[in-house]
Prior knowledge:
The complex is a heterodimer of chains A (463) and B (250).
Chain A: E1 5-14, E2 18-28, E3 33-37, H1 44-52, H2 54-57, E4 62-69, E5 72-73, H3 79-85, E6 86-89, H4 102-112, H5 117-130, H6 146-159, E7 164-168, H7 176-191, E8 195-199, E9 211-215, E10 238-248, E11 251-262, E12 266-270, H8 277-284, E13 291-296, E14 304-307, H9 320-325, H10 333-342, H11 358-371, E15 377-381, H12 389-404, E16 408-412, H13 416-422, E17 425-430, E18 433-439, H14 440-444, H15 447-453
Parallel strand pairs in A: 3-8, 3-9, 6-7, 7-8, 12-16, 12-17, 14-15, 15-16
Antiparallel strand pairs in A: 1-2, 1-4, 4-5, 10-11, 10-13, 17-18
Helix pairs in contact in A: 4-5, 4-6, 5-6
Chain B: H1 27-38, H2 45-61, H3 65-74, H4 76-89, H5 92-113, H6 118-127, H7 132-161, H8 174-205, H9 223-244
Helix pairs in contact in B: 1-5, 1-9, 2-5, 3-5, 4-5, 6-7, 7-8
Amino acid sequence: MSIALRAEGLSYAYPQQGLGLAATDFAAAAGETWVVTGPSGCGKSTLARCLAGLIPHLYRGQMGGRVWVGDLRTDQAELWQLAERVGLVFQNPALQCLASTVEEELAFGLENLGLPRAEIASRIATGLERFGLAELAGRAPHTLSGGEQQRLMLAAALAREPGALVLDEPLSMLDSAAATQFVADVAALAAQGATVVVCEHRDAYFHGGAVRRYAMPGRWSPADLPHPPPLPLTAEAEVLIQGLALGHGERRLFANLDLRLRGGEVVALVGRNGVGKTTLLRALAGLHPHGGRIAAADGARPELGLMFQNPDWQIFNPTVRDEMRYRLASPDEALYAWALQALGLGAYEQTPPLLLSEGEKKRLALAILLMRRPRHGVLLDEPTLGQDDGHRAIMGGAARALAGAGYVVIAATHDLDWASRYADRLILLGRGRVLDDGPTAEVLGHPAAWREAGLVVPPWLRA
Amino acid sequence: MPRQRRARLGARGLALVEDSPLRWADPRAKLALSLCASLAVMLPLKQLAVFMAAFAGLLLWARLLPEAARQVWRLKWILLALFLLDWLLVSLDLAVIITLRLALLAGAFSLFFASTMPGELRLALEWLRLPYRYAFSLSLAFQSLELLGDEWRAILEAQQARGAWTPPTGWRNLSGRLRDLVSLTVPAITLAAKRAWSMTEAAYARGFDSPHRQPYRRLAWRPLDTWLLIGSVAAMAALLIWRYTTAWNG
């Protein structure tokens, strides 16, 4: 049975960060599918939490207006009553795993419905089968790939047979094949009559006549992009990879990889989740043991700065300024000014880094590594994960500026839209080797290679 | 010894030894066994050494000896520090017995944690009348320890890459070392808090506070569990008798 979701004059202010959602009216009739779009910080995640009732039950901020889940008002009903009617899936599946096996993960929500054991067993079997998880039933959820984890979270939400499903940025961690599969799963669900609300930056994946769109206020414009002065650094870098052998323990990722990476071009490394993109970047940065040779043009070990996938691993100083200048005896002032401006951090110089948005933290991580003046280039691990067009454009502009100054710039990404816009060259990885390598537009037009990689080029990017 | 299968994590993030004969024993029986073994810390040195040899035999039979040894090895610096302190400040006898006691405790609880899944730990705690919300939180915390370890290693690497952490070399520059520690602990605390909050939201979004909860898995007591319990109680009684009929050397 599908359920309508309705918000009237809904607003919310977080206790510390302030306004999370400006006054909003939203209604999804029973059986409708809605995609909610808008820039980072506009309140998409806050709306999702309000529709599922987590706000106001788990949060102590100020909520205005009212939200109904079917005939229940969220501020008056118990949270477990709302959870019986609305399923909620979040952005990062790894942070939602609550059990030590896939089977127990499905059982958790069903136990809370008070179902008989036979019914729980039956629903687990159905969920495992429907989402292709049967062979993984005994595995620990954190050992699954990102795509498998997100499918598990969808299966866990749907096993409870809620009348409505709210998805908060479900595609952000997924490669193109996993994202396409996930969207197909959601479409099948909608076809069965469920109400679905998806808050998503990568909204192009959701298409078709039945999908309705709700644009949150606030829109990014190219005029908002920073216009920094020329980068006060130059390089004539080149990195040669010869016979590279790389793996984790007994698991071999690459056996004999040869690549020539030239300064002056932005290179996108693309492959399925788990193919070894991050490990390759770590090897290039000298952080992962490997066989074979990685050398700069002069034969020495190249100095490449790595921007890690999770910026929270590095942030601990009281201000952005302190963070960027930490442990630098004589910071390059021109570079400091450039990084603040080019990365859109100028207004946050005295802000505690922990209060920045995820996109801003990513850019701060890039600023941190630039301040150490890596000699040959930078390695960007998923530079646009979960970010809106504006944040992605700033990151793209910085990558282009660095390449323009002669640096080697390599970005491991599953954001093919970003790669198609900012990468000069695309290296497609799969089966432990390079499946295709060339100008981005050209590689995007080679369907056989993408099939072999187990990936999908979205229709709007096909040549 | 045959190669052990460690496909999943047991409670507390220890490697779960799938082919241990104790893997499918009831967690209540295993808990009783671990508690009884830990009572041996009361024994004087000679008897403690004999007991530890016998306990090592039990671990060997249960295919848990390598995992228990790994856990004791993890404590090597604490054990060494305790040993040296007691030896220098009191006596060699006390240093040996204190070190052995700590090693025994680590080994005794490895028996439980390396053969028990977090879900089974939760059921055992619920059987002990701990309210579900606390039993669930405890089992989730144990389950997350391994993930926190992975996160710590990632932070270490990320801070090392930016020069905010350097591997320790001697006692010089103590203030720098303390600053290094801040660069590791602040991100670790931030990420742990984020993870805890995300898990809380995920749990409530799937009806964690429902008054209608019915457990899917139930504990099943088998003949092996009865023998384990009898053995544990008998061992505990023997230990107590031995302890109080022997001169105290510890």
